[in-house]
Amino acid sequence: MRAILRFVPLAAVPAILMSCGPRSAPEGEKGTLAQRLDQDAAVSAIFYKWLGLVAAGVPIGSPSGNIITAPGDVAKIQLFQQGVIVYSDDFGAVFLTHALFERWLYYQTMTVPDGSTLYSYLGVPVRDWVQSNGHKDAHFERGMIVDGNINNDMYAVYGEFYLRYLDLMNVIGQPTEQQGDSPGGGRAQKFQFGELHQGPAGTFVLIGDVVEKWKALGAGASWLGHPMSDNEAILSNGGLLGRSAHFEHGAVYFGGNFSARRFSTPGSRSFTAMISTIGGEVKKASGLRERFAHSRRKARSCAGVIRRIFTSAGR
Known about the structure:
This protein is α+β, with helices and mostly antiparallel strands and 315 residues long. The protein folds into 3 domains: 1-25 and 32-96, no CATH class; 101-182, no CATH class; 207-315, no CATH class. The chain contains 8 helices and 15 strands. The chain has helices at 2-5, 12-19, 33-55, 98-106, 118-122, 160-172, 208-217, 285-314; strands at residues 68-69, 76-80, 83-88, 92-96, 130-132, 135-140, 143-147, 154-158, 180-182, 186-191, 194-199, 202-206, 232-236, 239-247, 250-255. Strands 1-2-3-4 form a 4-stranded antiparallel sheet. It has a 4-stranded antiparallel sheet with strand order 5-6-7-8, with helices on both faces. It has a 4-stranded antiparallel sheet with strand order 9-10-11-12. The chain is elongated.
């Protein structure tokens, strides 16, 4: 403790301790033992978190207010000159910037599809904010807030989008808008270098000309329906021919000229044709299946005729 206190402005120690309030309930004030112990846990956790940050040289400054209860009684919070410490029973004391903390509180004014506020859906912060690729991130129980340099604003990524984004962050960059409804009953969110789209089959990443073509057709409200796959590379002998994405009733391909039409096994999810026009639209899978089945019937019929001719000649 002495080693830590050497780095702490001594004038600030009484301030943080006094701002925490009395350790026991005042005269005439009713309070349970559990409530007092809860307050004591928050006081201790916030205090030692502050000491640790100061000792590590993190700019946080002195406390600028008392410990108060967060909306919905989900956490205890204390503001400092250059940041905020949020304490919860499950995740302890967590350090946020003022901007990230204020945006979290602001999300009380926004709702998510289940009708709850975005603030309550996100839950409490689970770890200290971090700097990542030019933006500041705060992670919560069911999502994150990204404070970047896009549109001079901050955006939340939450739910299934958050789970996908954790793996795709370095691919699609920062969010450029909030998650919202998309045509056909889906959900969508734009990022610097791609989009996440959610439909009945899950949440998928769509990039570049593939997603633009699909949206031009009407997105999930079009005959293609909702996505069934991420953008996929089309390779030939190790080289990239183009990219594709599969949807409920077809697919979109984009890339160089495909010299041949190829069909996969009828009835499979990927059954469709590679077309020869750049960025062109693939026809409905049902029609392709019919033409493919018709071609197979003709081939079998011809094979049968040839087999009978050779059989007759052999006699």
